[in-house]
Amino acid sequence: MSLRALWRWTGRWQFCPVFLMVLPLFGGMLAAANAALYPSNALRSDTGSQAAEGASTPGRLAAFFPGDTLLYAELPAPERLVQKWLQHPTVAHALELDAVKPNLRSPEFLAFKTGVTLVEASLGGTWPELIADLGGGGIAAAALPGENRFVVILQARDEARLKKAAESLLNLTALQARNEGRDQPWRIESRGAAKIAIFDGFAMVRSGVRLILATRIEDAEAVVQRLERPEAAASLATNPTFQVAGPNIHSDQADAEAFLWVNLEQIRAAGLAPALNQAVSDNPFAELLFGGWLVALGSNPSASLALHLDDAHLRIEAITDYRPEMAAGPRDYWFGAAGSGQAPRWIAPDSIDGTTVMQLSAYRDLGQWWLNKESLFIDSVIADLVQADSQLSTVFGGLDFGGEVLGAFEPGVQILVSGRPGSNLDPAAEPTAGSLQIPGFAIIGQLREPRQTTRRFKVAFQSVMGFVNLGLAQAGLPQYDVDTRTTEQGCECVSRIWVEEEADVQSPVYSFSPSLLINNGRLVLGSDAAWVQALADTPLPAAAAGDLNAATADNTTLPAVAGGGAAPATILNTHLDLDWQIVVQLLKMNRETLVAQNMIENGNSRLDAGRDIDNLLQALELASRFDFRLETTDNHMRMVGRIDWATTAPTVITGEDQP
Amino acid sequence: MRPATEPAWFDRWQPAEAWAAWRPTATDPWDFAQAAHLHRRAGFAANWESLERDVARSPESVIADFLPRELTGDEQQNLQAEQSTGQILAVAGEARRLSAWWLLQMVHSPHAATERLTLFWHGHFATSADKVPEANLMWRQYLSLRRLAWGPFRDLVQEIARDPAMLIYLDARDSRKAKPNENFAREVLELFCLGTGNYTEQDIRELARAFTGGGIRNGRFHDNRYQFDDGEKVFLEYRGPANRAEAIDAIVRHDACAKFLVWKLVRNYVADDIPRDHPLIEHLATRYRQDDLRTADLLRQIWSSRLFFDRDCRGARIESPVEMGVGLLRSLGLSFPMEVLADALRELGQLPLFPPSVKGWDGGNQWIDVRTAILRSNLVHRMIQDGRFAGEPHLPSWSRKDWPAIVKELVQLTCPQPISEQLHQGLVQIARDTDGNDQQRLAVVMGSLATLPEFLVA
């Protein structure tokens, strides 16, 4: 079963009454639209308490699916999810966006609204009420092994309404068929005690408070049998892997709004995702970032994912097993010895200037990564890396790039991006309108033996800048004046653009003054001289470097830097923190470039392109921060992504407002 | 096309009469068709509302709008914003996208006549980004051509003679005293200023000596006085130690220069097939010389002339691919991805910044053959099918979906001459027989119209 097959399968339903009826039950996206349909809170006032009473942990419906299920997705409390979504401040902000408001008056949306009204009229309730009554006990969907095998189960709270819904569904379908001059589109067959409606393409059966939809009659029948005699057949709930690594693996499962379980073992066996069967990677950067997860997904029996939503955040947590042998092979560079690799925090971004856009901290032994390339990558990538190795060795004066250059660093790397664009412009050369505003970049590492290697990096920097200057000269651009000196703590290599005569001040080259500073073994290489200097001078955080792991109990907030002591239960391997508000500011500073891009690509006038870009920037303001972590514990690996919603409505942007 | 032996429509005009100012009369009025003709030739066509507005004005005031004028505050601000966009693309080194940007300028510019004249000079001083790797240099050349487009011509040639993109394109950035590069000197005489038959090989050799020492440093023109040949040169009617600037001055003073340029401009704005030695050309060249080769004065006279508003002048040029593509977008108020348009125009043989050779685009009959005729029709269909209208197509009958009227308006807007009643009925029938929405019908109708000779000319 592939995603393509899934789309084909849904595509057949998209315009039939059955799909129209089931569609609202998968609330999420439609909920936003419904806020426009029901400006006041459309849910009954008591739904909150009902939801609380009916709050259920994920996995309850797993007992009705077969043990060899490939993918299991569940909305354990759809009513609660819809309520949260409808009352969510970000949804309210989104509906006020200039890009959204006209769409709510479009013919397509009005047609959709009519369809929803039709369903509501036939079932006697607003769609939030229908979700509460028809899906209040949970909605689950599964993909099964084989071609075109999908099953959906709705667990209703109101059996009478479910019965009416099923009958209305059949009647609507028959009515539509008659209107189109077709035969009766379904027939009823008795299978034991159950009566199954057989459609062209799927089967539907109602059993008590449950409605089952399946693409194959046999699968619907099997579900009915499990409903009637749960003890008789093996099910997903009795699958040992699901029991161990199912919903219960998430510590805060009761709050999850959606849950997904992936049977990796079955998927690999069926060859549905060839990348999972591949022991080596075809992308060096993906390997560097997610190498540990690639080995986990390629060898673990399953992985599970939970989604949490509240007024302030959207959080997605993925969990899979961690086994010590994963860190014993070539991915030692990623996990560290026995999985103990911790993301460093040599510099706390907040301590610089409050303009940090992004900070990425990761435990990676780059020397080992490079030296193990033959075990990590496919042949074509290895060939490219071998070629790069030779060229980089030349740049570094004949040193072995993997062993002597990358190997000169302690494991761990920290990358910072500053929202303050290059401050290296000659004060007399003001950037004119339309010039590119490029953020500052810096990479920080810790040298193993600074006394032996500082001078090596200083010379390498001089060589690289020599190459850069040759390239700039050939392009007719001004060159860098490079100042280098050895200090007691290390070295300072600072470059600045040297403008001899009239030059093009809009060249992006003016946004860079590549600089390298080594201060007591801490190496900072960055794009802006002043910023690099500030970073190099920043004192280490109070605690020892290399520990970001004092995670809070619920792991939803940024951890503080921990002190020494016993090894923490959770080891933070990788941490990405993105200040989305500063990203949007940067994009606004480059609005002219984005408008230009839009004009060329779409043939828009400046006015239309400006409107498109402003709408996009406004939409981006809905979020304020993005936080991403890769963690390991004794038994598990966790990947946690969190979006913090903006607390204020997006600003209205006009061309005149732009910097 | 007209057989060579047959007199042409312009042969019936005496030069003095032909270039005299046209005065509308009851039988030869200033009407929608004349206004559309003026826009199609002097700019890149206009939409229905603009044409109706212009019909209500005098032709003199409309022509004045095409000539260089002080831009309004908003226009100036928009132009600066557009140019900063071009600069961004140039700095990023994207010549192909820069070309797409220029096409967009032609569509949206507040002064289309300047863009059209700049395109003419770009074809005249042809330089291709295929050979000039730095887009920034092509950008600067575009700015120079645009800034100096309206003349005097002398200033324009002086600028081009020091233009880094041109020097790179003609391999003239390393012309030394010991080995003068004759390539640039040859093109200055043959293609830029005098035309064939007005100079000798000896003139080229002598002129090449005047151009020695020129090179490029940091992307700018640089004179190396150690490599300049400061000896006496003898070429055309000049004798002396001419340097680059003095040599250019001597060339543009030559009688043949004005005549050559007038001929090229008349071909571009009046008739493709007018011969270089036609009395109409000589008459205008005399005036051009008197006006110190100020192109703005020359174009005012051309656009105001009786010859220009002769009904036979409509359709006397084959529309270039750029004129066709840009004109369609402007006349219907259509948006279309510019990079896609640029790719299609390259297929049709005319992509700005990428002329095929130092001779530029030949134009005229060279634009059309069986392949390009089909490509044009397909492009027109695609532009309307995939394009985005600002609201609705700018046609009075569009809201009523009155297809006979819509077809008539489309012909008035995009063709210089009317089509037969039979063809009109055929197009209406095509609209009625086409499945799909109204935009798809319009695309099919326009795609069909684009196959007619009446659409291919300007």
Q: How are the strands of the largest sheet of chain B arranged?
A: 1-2
Low-confidence stretches of chain A: 1-55, 423-434, 543-568, 654-659
Oligomer: heterodimer
Biggest chain contact = A-B, 28 and 34 residues
- The share of residues in extended strands of chain A comes to 15-25%
What fraction, in percent, of the residue positions of chain A are helical?
25-40%
Give a description of the structure:
- The complex is a heterodimer of chains A (659) and B (458).
- Chain A is of the alpha+beta class.
- Chain A has 23 helices and 20 strands.
- Chain A has a domain of 208 residues.
- Chain A is 37% helix and 20% strand.
- In chain A, helix 3 packs across helix 5, helix 5 runs antiparallel to helix 8 and helix 22 packs across helix 23.
- Chain A starts with a helix and ends in a 14-residue tail after the last strand.
- With 458 residues, chain B is mainly alpha-helical.
- Among the domains of chain B are: 159 residues, no CATH class; 136 residues, no CATH class.
- Chain B has a two-stranded antiparallel ribbon with strand order 1-2. A two-stranded antiparallel sheet of chain B has the order 3-4.
- In chain B, helix 5 runs antiparallel to helix 8, helix 19 packs antiparallel against helix 22 and helix 21 runs antiparallel to helix 22.
- The longest helix of chain B is centred in the first third of the chain and has 19 residues.
- The two termini of chain B are 14 Å apart.
- Classes of the chains: A alpha+beta (659), B mainly alpha (458).
